[in-house]
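Render this sequence as a predicted structure.
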Amino acid sequence: MHRYPFTSSIWRQHDTGTLYPPLTASESSEIVVIGAGIAGLVCAYELQKRGKQVTLLEALEIGHGTTGHTTAKCSVQHGTIYQKLIRHFDETTARLYYEFNSEALVYLKNQIDEGFDCDYSVEDSYLYSTEPNEELSKELDAYRRLKLDGGEATNEAGDALPFQIEQALVIRNQAQFHPVKYLRELANRFVGLGGKIYEQTRAFEVSQGPRPIVTTSTGRRVQANQVVITTHYPFNDLRGLYVSKFLVERSYIVACETDATPLKGMYLSVDRVSRSYRTYEENGRTFLLVGGEGHTAGQVTDTRNRYDRLESDAQHHFKTMRATYRWSSQDLITLDSLPYVGQMFKREPDILLATGFLKWGMTNGIAAGNLLADQLTGRPNRFSELVSPLRKTVKPSGVGPFVKTNLDTATQFAKGAVDRVLERRDVEDLQLDEGGIVQVDNQTKGVYRDLDNHCHVVNLTCTHLGCTVKWNNAERTWDCPCHGSRFDAKGAVLEGPATKPLPYKKREDL
């Protein structure tokens, strides 16, 4: 029996979509899009509709990445973002960010009207606090200044939630949906228009110069006029110093079945310990989705207790059953809280990217995909400067996060060498379904002992920039605390920026 349930996303449980082949021969295309998440598929679909010939490369499978591991809220209410943008920039920038995401909601609604089937529903979105919160009061003032469709909603949220709250704000007529079903709709229609999708095809390198060449991990190549990188964390992050521009955060979600009336609306707390709530109905069953427990990626080993706290919260407040599904998600947060969408490098107009969605990839991703499609087909788009990756971001208010992010990376790099010594154990001490840093043949290695008592041995050095990976006991993965790369128990890359696996051996004699 499992000592602890393996993680699985509710969105991926019944995915019976098409399995696309890997790329087995080099070819050329007008445009290559790398990454079949929400931004990549929207971009590829729109480009193909507009007459471009597009090839889409996915390292794993459609829905396997960040889009398939979210709470799938489609909202312009991104925490207390608007008062922060007004403070860091001005009201014009804050309003533009609102409209950038609002247009994504309109785009999604139009697709629903066209027949997209993805369990879409219109919901109001609420921010709340259980104690006095100055940020929430400032956000209410920002709503008024920006003339958003919403405002104070303390009594409304208090009536819906089964615990006492102090204050709440609402934005009306937002949405929630099934993200993997949405990706499948995009993929099917994209292929129906003549687009090509290759799964299990990891991009390894993009050449410089005109007509860039994408080289895959198996040595196959695709040459194109333009390349779009929508891989969540850009795998070619060293050029342009993107490696220094992100905070990578991991958060957790449980889906607990309940007999109660489905929760109307979507809820997010702004308390010190944050919680996200929404419900999802499937085949007559109602699930409460509870999210939270975020931390910097790769810097927590005992992740099981994160799920346990969410499950306990659901049972205590909402009287749910035990969690049926557990999964986690990784998010990139930029230094100024705006996404990077557009030309990636100053002197290379043919390489574009979309990333840094601040945990709100459903609307930001759709908006990014449309913006990239406009830029690649010569259509004007008023949001280009707002989210340009080449913008000047380091203002006085942005210096602190920049310094903190890079000091933390340096600290984790140095700490890894110490952890290899302090956390090292004897391999005999590993229980079934347990991983850790151990001594193997007089060398320090990472070892996972599976349920069949086989030991899987990996090198602990991340193949991205050499940090020491840490064991994640709920996901059964090796996670990098510096830039968020993730590897499975056999060293295969699950999430970038790393593109190479950890060296691996299976040992029957340990």
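Summary. The chain has a mean pLDDT of 91. The radius of gyration is 22 Å.
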